UniProtKB/TrEMBL annotation, chain A:
Record lineage: Bacteria, Pseudomonadati, Bacteroidota, Cytophagia, Cytophagales
Keywords, sorted A to Z: Kinase, Membrane, Phosphoprotein, Transferase, Transmembrane, Transmembrane helix
EC numbers: 2.7.13.3
Bilayer-spanning residue ranges: 12-34, 129-151
InterPro entries (alphabetical): HATPase_C_sf (IPR036890), HATPase_dom (IPR003594), His_kinase_dom (IPR005467), HisK_dim/P_dom (IPR003661), HisK_dim/P_sf (IPR036097), TCS_sensor_his_kinase (IPR050428)
Protein name, per record: histidine kinase
Originating species: Spirosoma foliorum
From TrEMBL, chain B:
Record's protein name: Response regulator transcription factor
GO CC aspect terms: cytosol; protein-DNA complex
Lineage: Bacteria, Pseudomonadati, Bacteroidota, Cytophagia, Cytophagales
Modified residues (4-aspartylphosphate): 51
Keywords: DNA-binding, Phosphoprotein, Transcription, Transcription regulation, Two-component regulatory system
Length: 422, 225
């Protein structure tokens, strides 16, 4: 949820509750005031009534007393003599409508007989008053609420504008690019501070990245020549006739170690180059055809390892890749499928327009499948593996809008490449 | 045969020349761009092995000059740079082969030989070793005059051996020669073994002597028994 939506939501809920409570309190106060008013008028009428009765010792419905306004009923039984206010509904004799009244009941002796006297006052006008006031109040409060809400939104939208600007810039920021992170100044100190910190961080990251990039490349390149020298000298040494068995073993170890460093070096250099996007000549490559070709090339290796191939290429799987990287991707995948296979195993290639899957039989995975694509993550402990193959595959996929997934079901290891939907 | 090695790393240049001289080549070295330029202007070489990164210049320029002077000289690039663009550019301006450092001397040797064969005789020359005759342009092998059918890899293996007679070849260099740089596992050594076994059997069947000698821990050597 967006920050603005969230604050607005909280604000709106809070205001609504407050306004409702206010409206309720307001309603109660008005009601109380009206009742107080009606009741004091009823009391005045009671005094008038008592004065009249005391004077005449009798009661007649005077013509100005409209019916229902005063009701006098003799009560024979003894009742507790006390007065009480109550709300009542009385039927209008003209249209039979029930009309709210406030009623004051008290007991008064007339001619020695106790009479129950009820004086009523219609609440019809006051109810209308309450209604009108309530409606007006709800209307105004609602308008106020909407107004505040609108204002709040406008205001915070404006206030947070630099923040969203910064966010957009950071999203666009590319470490590979030479352009540094440029953030615009705002009036708000906190945002300026945030921008300063971000700019410094980005500059530092860029610098570190650049130096690391240069270092890897230079180091890799500079290492190749001495390695070539070691290899050449060892090869010359091998030609010497009088080598003892121990010496041969030593030489063999040196030779293998130097070749391993060289492979490692080449792998790392390739990774660095892909990361730095030094390959620019992307072209449309049919990976499924390339994989098929590579598998055919490896025919002898496959028959030596007694592996059978099953190709199910229903449609070509076209990707945009530089040719050399496509080759590297395919080679690493095939090598992986061969290397981690078992005797009499299978390699299966299935391709559709959306997905390309290469699966192979093989033993149980020892390590975490999640970490399979990491650098130097080796399944076998053999000296022949430098653990960069799948990392290279992953790096190529990540850099060129492809998604690679690994799945293992019942001893079948499957690598699937699909396009990343944008 | 005259070969010029243009390489600034002294030790590597020495190793290459030593290896070549043993095979009967006349080798010269140039450690700098200027040296190399001077030499190619003064003398004629059958093959030039060039490193691309030189302290005072670029190997590409040497190749360009060379091709302008004598177009028939074979050129092999040796470089630590393995970018495809470099390889393509090298081949485009007239080099015949491209080897990425580090490489096997035996591989370089095999490539030089094959290059010279192609350059000088159009591949129409036979390679002879005792009773074995290989006709490269038809890819045919004769032992004691009888045609011997070899698989593609066995043929490549034999040619590799014949390019490096009397030289100890490591299993790794054989594997890489046969399957390229990418085949790099313990398994490939087993495959080398099985191919050698087959080649040996086929040669012996036609009455050839057993020339393949295995060297403990290292690899194989093709030589007089």
């Amino acid at each position: 949820m967006k920050l603005l939506t969230k604050t607005n939501q909280i604000y709106l809920t809070f205001s609504l509750v407050i306004y409702l409570l206010t409206a309720l309190a307001f309603y109660q106060i008005i009601r109380l005031l009206i009742y107080d008013e009606v009741e004091s008028r009823l009391k005045v009428e009671r005094r008038d009534f008592e004065t009249y009765v005391r004077k005449h010792n009798a009661w007649t419905s005077a013509p100005y007393f409209v019916e229902n306004k005063i009701e006098v009923i003799p009560v024979s039984k003894r009742v507790p003599i006390r007065e009480a206010f109550k709300d009542t509904l009385i039927e209008n004799r003209y249209d039979g409508e029930l009309i709210p009244f406030r009623q004051l009941t008290f007991y008064e002796p007339i001619h020695g007989v106790i009479h129950r006297v009820s004086i009523r006052k219609s609440l019809i006008q006051t109810y209308r008053l309450i209604e009108v006031i309530s409606v007006a109040m709800v209307l105004f409060l609602g308008l106020l609420l909407l107004g505040m809400f609108w204002f709040q939104r406008k205001l915070s939208g404006r206030l947070w504008l630099p923040f969203y600007g910064t966010l957009a810039r950071i999203k666009q920021f590319d470490l590979n690019n030479d352009t540094s992170l440029q953030l615009s100044k705002s009036e708000i100190t906190e945002f300026n501070e945030l921008n300063d910190v971000l700019q410094k961080m980005a500059a530092k990251m860029q610098q570190d990245y650049q130096s690391l990039k240069e270092f890897t490349e230079n180091a890799s390149h500079e290492m190749q020549t001495p390695l070539a020298l070691i290899n050449a000298k060892v090869e010359q040494l091998i030609q010497t006739e009088q080598l003892t068995e121990t010496q041969t073993n030593w030489i063999e170890s040196i030779y293998q170690a130097s070749r391993r460093i060289s492979r490692l070096n080449q792998g790392l250099l390739l990774l660095a180059k892909i990361e730095n996007r030094q390959f620019s000549d992307t072209q449309s490559v049919d990976l499924s055809a390339l994989l098929t070709e590579k598998l055919t090339d490896m025919e002898e290796v496959l028959s030596f390892k007694q592996l059978s191939i099953n190709l199910q290429t229903t449609a070509p799987f076209a990707v945009q890749l530089p040719a050399s990287l496509a080759d590297s991707l395919v080679t690493n995948l095939v090598n992986n499928a061969i290397k981690h296979n078992q005797p009499n195993g299978r390699i299966e290639l299935t391709s559709t327009a959306d997905q390309l899957c290469l699966s192979n039989t093989g033993g149980q995975l020892i390590s975490d499948p999640e970490r399979l694509f990491e650098r130097f993550k080796k399944e076998s402990t053999g000296p022949d593996s430098v653990g960069l193959g799948l990392a290279i595959v992953r790096q190529i996929c990540d850099s060129y809008g492809l998604h690679i997934a690994y799945r293992e079901t019942g001893g079948i290891h499957e690598f699937c490449i699909s396009h990343v939907l944008t | 045969m005259k070969v010029l090695v243009v390489e600034d790393e002294q030790g590597l240049a020495e190793s290459i020349t030593d290896y070549m001289v043993k095979d009967g080549y006349i080798c010269e070295t140039a450690a700098t761009f200027r040296d190399a330029e001077e030499k190619i202007h003064l003398y004629t070489y059958d093959c030039v092995i060039v490193d691309l990164t030189l302290p005072d210049g670029n190997g590409f320029q040497i190749i360009e000059t060379l091709k302008r002077l004598i177009a028939t000289t074979g050129v092999i690039i040796i470089s630590a740079r393995n970018a495809l663009e470099d390889k393509l550019k090298g081949l485009e301006i007239g080099s015949d082969d491209y080897l990425t450092k580090p490489f096997h001397l035996s591989e370089l040797n095999a490539r030089v030989k094959s290059l010279l064969r192609r350059r000088q005789f159009g591949g129409h020359t036979e390679i002879r070793f005792q009773e074995i005759v290989v006709v490269p342009h038809t890819r045919k092998v004769f032992v004691n005059g009888q045609l011997t059918t070899l698989s593609r890899k066995e043929y490549d293996l034999l040619l590799y051996f014949l390019s490096n007679v009397d030289v100890a070849l490591t299993k790794a260099s054989i594997a890489e020669h046969l399957w390229g740089d990418n085949i790099d596992s313990a398994d490939s050594f087993d495959m080398v073994y099985s191919h050698i076994k087959n080649l040996r059997r086929k040669l012996l069947e036609k009455g050839a002597a057993d020339y393949v000698q295995s060297i403990y821990g290292i690899g194989y050597k093709f030589c007089q028994p």
